[in-house]
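queue> holo job accepted (heme C)
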Amino acid sequence: MTTENQMTESVEQPEEEKSFFFRGAVLGLAGGAVAAVLLISVVGTVISLGDDVFGSSSDTAMDEPVVVDPLVATGETLAASNGCVACHSTDGVDGVGPTWQGLSASVDAEYIRTAIVDPNAVIADGYTAGVMPDTYGDTLSEEDLDALVAYISSL
Ligand code: HEC
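queue> job finished
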C-alpha cells in the first residue's frame, strides 16, 4: 500500500512538474513575443516621431519660416499700404515694375534702398526711368525703408 502510493506519487510528480514547466515555457514565450512586439512598436514610434520632429522642422525652415522677422512683416505691410505692389509682384511675374522675387540674389540691400529712394539712379534692365515715383525718400521714414529693404531681401 505504502509502496504503491509512493510509486503513484513518484510517477505523478514528474508529470505535474513537466506540465508546470511546459506551461511556464509557453507563458515565457508568449510574454517574450508580446515584449518583442511592444519593443518594435515603441522603436517604430520613436523613429517616426524622430522623422516628424527633424523632418518637419527642416521642411518648415525651408518652405516657410515659423518665426517671421517682424521687420520683414512690417515691410510687407508697407509695400501694400504704399502701393508698391501695384507695380511689383512677389511671385516672379513682372508688371509695370520688375518682380521682387529673387532680386536679392543679384543685388545687395544698398542697391534696393537706392532703388526705392532714388529710382532713377539705377534703371532695371528693360524698364524706363520716370515710371516709379521718386518721392519715397521723402515720404518714408528710415525705419520704413529698413523694413521694406528687409522684406524685399527676404523674397
Ligand atoms: C508706378 C509703378 C511703381 C510703383 C508704385 C513702385 N515702383 Fe518700384 N519700380 C517701378 C519700375 C518701372 C521700376 C524699374 C525702373 C527702375 O529701376 O527705376 C522699379 C524698380 C524698383 C526696384 C529695383 C528693382 C530691380 O529689379 O532693380 C525696387 C527695389 C523697387 N522698385 C521698389 C519699390 C518700392 C519699395 C515701392 C513702394 C514703396 C515701389 N517700388 C513702387 C515701378 C514702380
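queue> The two ends are 102 Å apart (CA to CA).
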